[in-house]
Amino acid sequence: MSYCINPTCPNPENSAYSQRCQSCGSQLLLRDRYRVIKPLGQGGFGATFLAQDQALPGEPSCVIKQLRPSGTAPQVLQMGRELLDREAVTLDRIGNHPQIPRLLDYFEDGEQLYLVQEYIHGATLQQEIKRNGVFSEARVNQFLSELLPLLQYIHERKVIHRDIKPTNIIRRAQDGTLVLIDFGAVKNQVSQTLANPTEQTALTAYAIGTPGFAPPEQMAMRPVFASDIYAVGVTCIYLLTGKPPKDLDYNQTTGEMLWERLVQTSDHLTVVLRKMLEISVRNRYQSPQEVLEALELEPYLDSFAQSMLVQSCTVSKERMSQNCEESGVFSINPTAVSGLGEPQVRSAILAIPAKTGDTTATYAVGTEPTVVTKPTTLVRTHTGCHTGQNSKTPRRLDTQGLLRDYLKGKRNFALYNLSMLTLQDVDLSETNFHSSQLVKTNLQGANLYNSNFAKASLNRANLRDTNLSKADLSHADLEGADLRGSDLSYAYLNNANLQGANLCGANLTGAKISQEQLALAKMNWMTVRPCGKPGLL
Ligand SMILES: [Zn+2]
Fold first, then answer.
1. What average pLDDT is seen over the chain?
2. 528 Cβ neighbours under 8 A, 6+ residues apart
3. 406-457 tens-digit pLDDT
4. What is the whole-number distance in angstroms between the Cα of residue 14 and the centre of ligand 1?
5. Separation between Cα atoms, residue 432 and residue 436, nearest integer Å
6. Tell me, what's the pLDDT at 231?
């Protein structure tokens, strides 16, 4: 399709190869090169379009912002013009950064101003939250480690973004990188704002940022660099809660956002967010660099994936007592038994994993571990080696690679070889592992809610205390898998092989599983059966 951008065109849709609009006769090829495909947003003084640049090989997509003078009050037009000018100047100054769309063209044509920008294909963080749910703390740290260095770059070039919010951050589909858009001009949400009776008021409100995301000093028309830091803080609260600022409560006296009871962040992150969200500029962080230093985050994606891996292993040290070691033996001291709580290792762990990546992490433990375990815990010994070989050779990913891809938004790991990986306590919910190999993979404590493991090989996988609610495990091989304490409510286990699988303490409420399958597995009085009642058959 070819779209006519004459603001008064009665019927702007044209066939793809037309030269002139069939309704109004306007040239369809702007500047002899840009063919507009469809409108992206429209308002009282401007509109944005998706277009193709036919002058370049491959005809790459671009975004065209058009200042529309028709039927607009002169002072509004003047303000719109200044905003568009400002955006062009800003983008020209800072646009040579991989996380900022490039300014490709800026011109006047038939009394209308146009700004042409690189098109970023991907979903905004708002779309991502609506699609996949809220972020974990690790993902918020990941977000900050990617966005703050970009903000530092922008601030060093004396630019204040003034409108950082989830709808202005796009995760580029091509590589998962966060891209910051909208440097202060014709925005897509204009239409809503300009539905107000006075365009002047709307445009003023618009020019100073988005209420709720913009801090008080910015709403009072005095934005400073730290104003962007406040907006990043509000964005973090949105990522953690899924609630936009208008749905949050505020302290009537101080104006502070009341968010702390809504999130379950570590004390460390809470303190940092609190300082990002200080009402007084004086008490807020002054630069993105300061926030990064406070977070002790390395501003690089790869090193973050590494640190998250180490973090995950650190967390799991407390639970590692019953990990399936290389020999496949669960080492449990049956004399130290307590009826309550999670298993804990009392003795000091002297070393972190000797190896990470392709093999299950091994731990060096100083003294013989004293393990507190539930009275029903079974001591099992595995012998033999199951390789889970397949006629195809599935793609191999190591732990770091998998986490990096997941953090970038990848959710499809069908037909991968993920055997023996250490993925303890990670969030891999709503992910596709169809037909993948996860033989002896350690997923203890992981969130696998609604994930697809159909036809996957989970032979002897460690799935203790995992959230497998609503997961698809149909035709999966779960032979010898450790499913103790796992949440399998409403999971699909049709035709899954549960020979020797340990379902002690597992919750099978509403799960699709037959009596024959259950008869092959180990259960105890704490196992909640598919009917919702605890106990043995
Ligand atoms: Zn037309």
1. 77
2. 506, 507, 508, 509, 534
3. 887 777 787 888 999 999 888 898 888 888 999 999 999 999 998 889 889 9
4. 8
5. 9
6. 96
- Sheet containing 29-30: which strands, arranged edge to edge? 29-30, 34-42, 46-53, 61-67, 112-118, 103-109
Give how far the C-alpha of residue 136 lies from the chain's centroid of Cα atoms, to the nearest Å: 9
* Longest alpha-carbon distance in the chain: 89
Alpha-carbon span 424 to 193, nearest angstrom: 46
Q: How far apart, in Å, are the Cα atoms of 190 and each of 112, 205, 269, 503?
A: 18, 11, 34, 55
SS3 string of 372-419?
EECCCCCCCECCCCCCCCCCCCCEECCHHHHHHHHHCCCCECCCEECC
Q: Residue ranges of the domains in the chain?
A: 2-118, 122-286, 301-387, 395-537
User: Whole-model pTM above 0.70?
Assistant: no
Question: Is the model's pLDDT at 499 over the cut of 90?
Answer: yes
Q: State the distance from the centre of ligand 1 to the C-alpha of 24, rounded, in angstroms.
A: 4
H or E element, residue 238: helix 225-241
Alpha-carbon distance 510 to 96, whole Å?
54
Question: In the numeric block, which tokens belong to residue 1?
Answer: 């399709």
- To which CATH superfamily is domain 2-118 assigned? Phosphorylase Kinase; domain 1 (3.30.200.20)
Is it true that domain 395-537 has CATH number 3.40.50.720? no
The closest alpha carbon to 284, from 240, 239, 221, 218, belongs to 218
- Per-residue pLDDT averaged across 132-146, rounded? 93
Topology at the third CATH level for domain 122-286: Transferase(Phosphotransferase); domain 1 (1.10.510)
Other CB atoms closer than 10 Å to residue 347's CB: what's the count?
13
CA of 4 to the centre of ligand 1 (A): 5
Pairing state between β 416-417 and 395-396: parallel
Which residue type, as a one-letter code, is found at position 8?
T
> What residues are annotated to the active site?
163
The two beta strands, 2-3 and 13-14, are antiparallel
Instruction: Give every CB contact of residue 198 below 8 A, 6+ residues apart in sequence.
Output: none
Which of 495, 499, 494, 474 has its CA nearest to residue 483?
499
Buried residues in 123-136 as b, exposed as e (16+ CB within 10 A)? bbbbebbeeeeebb
Q: Which residues pair with 298 in a beta bridge?
A: none
Alpha carbon distance 488, 512 (integer Å)? 10
CA of 28 to the centre of ligand 1 (A): 8
Ligand 1 centroid, distance to 44 Cα (angstroms):
18
Gap between the Cα atoms of 532 and 537, Å rounded:
12
| Neighbouring residues of 401: CB distance < 8 A, sequence distance ≥ 6 | none
Neighbours of 283 (CB within 10 A): 11
Q: Which DSSP string corresponds to 337-366? A: B-SSSS-EE-SPB----S--SSS-----BS
pLDDT at 72: 60
Radius of gyration of the chain measured on its C-alpha atoms: 28
DSSP state of 447: B
